[in-house]
Amino acid sequence: MARKNLGCSSSLFLVLLAVGSFFATYNLITLVVHNRTMNQGQYTYDPLVVMPNHMKRTEGKKVLFHVALTATDTVYSKWQCRIMYYWYKKKKDMVGSEMGKFTRILHSGKQDNLMDEIPTFVAEPLPSGLDRGYIVLNRPWAFVQWLEKATIEEEYIFMAEPDHIFINPLPNLARAEYPAGYSFFYIEPEENENIIRKYYPIENGPINNVDPIGNSPVIIRKDLLKKIAPTWMNVSLRMKDDPQTDKEFGWVLEMYAYAVASALHGVQHILRKDFMLQPPGDRETHHRFILHYTYACDFDMEGEYTPEKTGGWHFDKRNYLEEPLPRNISMPPHGVPESVRTLVKMLNEATANLPGWDMI
User: Fold this and answer.
1) pLDDT tens profile 96-138
2) Burial (CB count <10 Å: 0-12, 13-18, 19+), residue 37
3) Is residue 145 within a helix (H) or strand (E), and if so which, with residue range?
4) Cβ contacts of residue 69 below 8 Å, gap of 6+?
5) Rounded-to-integer distance, Cα 323 and Cα 340, Å
6) CA nearest 285: which of 343, 336, 335, 217?
7) What's the rounded Cα separation, in Å, for the pair 311 and 299?
8) Which tens digits make up the pLDDT trace of 285-309?
């Protein structure tokens, strides 16, 4: 059973999650305002990067992508990975899906008790102390190892995270040398040009060559990711070593590093707002592919959103750091956004059907 005392590393992990939770709450309040008028109808391409006509696909053979999920061996990561993999299997063979095989890239350096359930590649973590307690720095290093050592049949790769749920079959949104990504409103290269220029000098081009993205969700051609990944790792480490960058970018430092690394290799992304939704800021699930449940959901019993005011109906994945998510979470009250209701239904279905759920 994996509910063991994790020692000092666990304490550090919890502190970092608390910081991340504060950041997530701050961003959520902004996200709700940002998305209030953006949930009507189907999203199309972001105007920042328009798909060239010659890259548009016609009906024909599927172009599969490999789903690559980076993870740790904590209980918190494990229960999210199990749910994510459950919904991958449910959606993989549906009409419209171009999902290929699946790999959990486990950057703990050792096998765990999910090896037989989820296809897993064990990557070595960074040398002790190099991440300075910022565990996300292990992600680009893990991708470098996986891309060097693993046999990956698909031409494309989808970089995913444990708290992603496939709500609709995911097609390959990338086109040749143009990967597909999701535009995060809080990744602002132009607002942070004074910092970005430390890593993306002015002679490399205009600052808007740096896309407002992180590495996930991204669907990218395998050969492009092989070029970007080592640069992504090195830029991440350089950013962490710079006090100004570290202070300014905080929990999203590694996201900025991926955006900069892509720009350094001349790679721009097709930005798809239909790629992902993030409840409760995004209210509808129609015409979206992935549900990302990173933000806390707080509502009173009349269905009104009450950020940071628990006491009515509450859900936050960070309440389950050292034990699995409970089965049969209560449904939110009437009036809560459809996206939140969908999240709870999908979590409950997965936990009801996954064997040995309480014994992660």
Assistant:
1) 999 999 999 999 999 999 999 999 999 999 998 898 888 999 9
2) exposed
3) helix 138-149
4) 81, 84, 85, 102, 103, 104, 105, 160, 161, 162, 164
5) 22
6) 343
7) 8
8) 999 999 999 999 999 999 999 998 8
